[in-house]
Amino acid sequence: MTTKDIKKEIEELRKAIERHDHLYYVLDKPSITDQEYDKLYRKLKDLEDAHPELITPDSPTQRVGGKPAKNFPTVKHMTPMMSLDNTYSADEIRQFDERVRKNLSGEKVEYVVELKFDGVSIALLYKDGKWVRGATRGDGVEGDDVSANLRTIRSIPLAFREEAGKTPEAIEVRGEVYMTKKALEKLNEEKERAGEELFANPRNAAAGSLKLLDPKTVASRGLDIYVYGAGFYKGINFKTHAEILEYLKEAGFRVNPHYKICRTIDEVIDYCDSFEDKRYKFDFEIDGMVLKVNDLGQEKRLGATAKSPRWAIAYKFPAEKALTEVKDIIVGVGRTGAITPVAILEPVHLSGTTVSRASLHNFDEIARLDVKIGDKVYVEKSGEIIPKVISVAKEKRVGKEKEFAIPAKCPACGSKLVRGREEVAIRCENVGCPAQIKEAVLHFASRDAMDIENMGEAIVDQLVDKGLIKDYGDIYHLKFDDVKSLERFAAKSASNLVSAIEESKNRDLHRLIYGLGIRHVGEQTAWVLANHFGSMEKLQRSSQEELTEVPDMGPVMAESVYNFFRNKENLSVLKKLKDAGLKMAGEVKKVNAGPLSGKTVVITGTLESFSRHDAEEAVRNAGGTPASGVSKNTDFLVAGEEAGSKLEKAKALGVKIISEEEFKKLLK
Ligand SMILES: [Zn+2]
User: Which residue among 309, 473, 509, 527 is least crowded, i.e. fewest CB within 10 A of its CB?
Assistant: First the structure.
C-alpha cells in the first residue's frame, strides 16, 4: 500500500468509528456488535501504530491517549457563561413571565422548557466543525481548559456530522457534564471500601472527576454530557433556541429529548410539574427545570443583568422529607482525617430511592440537633446523594433514646483523636492512618512539597493498595523491584521513579515541613518555620510558647504543629525519613527581612524567568508574603504575560501593578 492509500484507509476507519460512536453513545442505537466495533478500532490502532506520523488529535484513538496534566490552563469563554436565577414555586414562575412580557412591551412569548441537570457546566469550542477545546464554567468569564478529560467522553463529537448541513465558522456549545446515578453509586462503593470520603452529589462527582489530572482515570468514571445551547456562534444563523437544539442534534451532539416549546405559562408550569416524579426514572439526576425564551430576537432585547440573563430562569423542585428512626450513629474517617458521624436509619422511601443512612456532618451538628440513638428524625434529600437529618421529632421520644458518645480513638487506626481549637471537626492526625494515607502521600510528593516527579494518583494508589507503602516515610525504602512490579511499569520508568525519589532527599527543609501535611501549615508557614528553627530537630523540640512567638504564627497553628510532633505514629514516620538520609536542616534566616519586608505580593500571568512557585519563593526570600488573591491589602501585583482577572481586579482596587523587570529590580 502506498502512504496515500494508508492515509485514505485511516480516514475511512475514523469516519466509520465516529459514526458508530454517534450511534452508540449519542443515539443509543448501535448498528454493529461490540466485537465488530473492536475490530474496526484495532485495525485503526494498528495502522496508526505503524504510521505514527499519521496520528491526528481528532482520531478516536486519541480520546484516552492524553498524558496526565500538571494543571489546567485558564481560558476565556467567547461569551460569559452566566448563572441562572432560581425560582421555587409556580407563583415565582408567573412573576418571571410577567417581567419578561413587560420588558417586551406585551409581545407574545414562547418558552422552551428543559431539564436542569445536576452536573458541571462546560463550554465546547468548535472551529470549522472541528473540536478545539472544552472548558469549565469557572467564574463565568474564564474557566479551566479540561479538554484532555472531556475528550474521553465519547458522546462529545470531535467533528460536526455532515448531516447537519452548514458548519459554523466558530461555535461555543454549552452543556452539562454529569455522572449517571449508577456510575456514582459504583464510585461511592469503591470509595467506601477504600475508606475515602464519598461524593455528596452527582455534581461534586462530575466536577471532581473533570479535575483529575489523568485522563485515563477520568475515562473510567462514566461521565456523559447533554448539550443545551450555544453561547456564541459565527457564520451560521438561528431564529429560535429550539432551532439551535435541533441543529446540535443533527451535528452529532447529545441533546436530551425531554424539552418542550410552551405557548402559555400554564403549559410551562404543567410541564415542570410532570417531571417532579418522572425524574426518579432517569439514570441521571436533575434538580429542576429551565425556562428559556424561544425567540432569539426577544432574547437579545431582554439582555442580562450583571449576574444573570433576563430571558431564562431555573425552577428548582422542592426537597422531599421523610420520617424515620435512627438505629445507630457510626463514625467514619475522611481522607483528610476528619471524623464524620453518620446516622444509620430504619430504611425509608425518599425521592425515589430507599434511604438507610444520613449525614450528620460533624459532632456540633449532633449537639445542635440534639439527636439521640433511637430518635425519630426527619431526613431530607435535596440534590445530595447522602440525605441529611434536618430535625428530631422530639414529641415522639419514649425515654429509651441513648446519648451518642464521641469516640476517643480513630476507627481506622486507633490513634488518639484531636479536636483543634476553633474547629468543628474532630480529626485523626496520624499521617500513617490507613484512611488518609493516599492523600498524605500525594501531598508529600506534590510539586510544591517534595516534588517527586511521576508520583501521581495512579502510582500512589497501586503502592498503597499493594501494601508497598504504609506512609510517606516508606517511599524512601522502596526497592527498584517493588516499583517495577507495578502495572504499566517498564524498567525504564521504574528507574526514573526511583531516581526521582532519591533526588527528592535533598529538597529544602521548608518543602519537607510543608510535605509533612501538618494541619494549618501551608507553604508560607512551612517556610517561616524552616527559617526560624533551621532544623527539624529544633522544630520538633519547640514548646507551644516558642512556636507562638514565631512571626506570623497564631495559637491555632502553634498548637497544630506542637500536637503533630507529640503523636507517636508521626514520630515513627519522621524517623523513617531521617533514616533514609533526607535533608533535615537548613539555615536560620531572619524571617520577614529583605527588600520586600512586610509587603504582600500577588503573582499573575506567565513570567519569563520564574515559575509561579519560584516567584513566590523569591518573594519570601526577600521578606515578603506571597498571596494568591488580590485584595485591598495587596502591595504589589506582578503581572506576567496573559494576566487575566487578577489584573482587572488590581486595577479596580488601585493596587500597584509591576512588570517582571520591575519585580526583579525589587528583589535585589
Ligand atoms: Zn486514623
Answer: 309
